[in-house]
Amino acid sequence: MASLVCTPTCFNLLFSNTTNPNPISRKTGSLSWKNHALHHKLALSNRFSSVSFSSNLSTVSVNNNTREYEFSDGAAEIELRLPLGNQEIQNSKYISVDAEETSLIIRARASGSLLTLMETSQLYDKIKPAETIWYIDEDQLVINLKKQDSDLNWPDIMESWESLTAGAPQILKGTSVYIVGDSTEINEKVARELAVGLGYTPLNTRELLETFAKQPIDSWLVEEGIDSIVEAESSVLESLSSHIRAVVATLGTPYGAMARADKWQHLYSGFSIWLSQSGAIVCISRSINLISPPGQYNADEGLAKEEAQRQIRDATKGYANAEVVIKLAGWLPNESQTVAQACLSALKRLVLSDKNLPGKKSLYIRLGCRGDWPNIKPPGWHPAAGDDTSET
């Protein structure tokens, strides 16, 4: 699995083949906001500090695996503190901060060399690059960044497995997650990884069905046929639809009910993720426009994205009802956390694009999971009544 690109809610991620794609170590602790007036006085005096590096400087990358930093969230803004150690940097004019909406590169000129103090291609959420300020406070470089979404709490400066799982309660608000796809094994492994990370209850319909039938699914298939298993799994999902804080892995083909478009009534109670195998890993929110930044997609990934869009438009395939599509380039069991991280990243951006989604899911459950998602009808509506009733 060479790369992973996710583009729900108009965002882009590129992960290397590792469970922790970010080279920077975790935060060392929170930072109090004392002397706030002095903080801003110093910061504003250096707001436009920058440095031009001559061509004869050598470039040195600091070992980011051992570098520590301090991070704090102050509602509308976040603060990052990097220790400068014994590097002879006396003035912020020797510091270069290259801030984009979702990325950050911090460099310093010291002893004839250009040092990379920090580099991350995926911040936890979007910032306002033009409002970035920095200054030196004794032996620390202080970076102040403005958040685009002041209501969102940042667990850390960058998006990682740890920050996504820490921030999930604020975003998901207890809404359950359903994993669907052709492979029962992949569904179960990714669902368990997600459940452990979120602190949710891991469930899978295969175990529940086999416990009920007292026989493996394969022998059940031989004895009673596919339709019997499909109906049984549908009943299980109906009973689980009122659960919260659960990650449910569903059956894959050939006997999974989720491959049938008419069996999704109770899955709309939670967030659904389709794990689909193809030539690249691409996660796509079915309701959001896609963007492809130059240089991040190869030919295979472009084909995978086109395939995902085509399948999403195919209303006869049940998986097309999923809110997030993740296309997998092969599968190795030890990569389940990488895929789970992509799922969480996609879900985060999906919910941030419409913060009413968790509440709407809750309303859907309270009204009986009648199948009227996403246009929820008033109490008393019945599917037989058609679509004449106004939306809620």
UniProtKB/TrEMBL annotation:
Protein name as it appears in the record: CS domain-containing protein
Recorded superkingdom: Eukaryota
CS domain span: 64-165
Family membership: Belongs to the shikimate kinase family.
PANTHER family named in the record: INACTIVE SHIKIMATE KINASE LIKE 2, CHLOROPLASTIC-RELATED, SHIKIMATE KINASE
InterPro entries xref list: CS_dom, HSP20-like_chaperone, P-loop_NTPase, Shikimate/glucono_kinase
GO CC entries: cytosol
Organism phylogeny: Eukaryota, Viridiplantae, Streptophyta, Embryophyta, Tracheophyta
A Pfam entry, by short name: CS
Species of the source: Stephania japonica
Transmembrane region(s): none
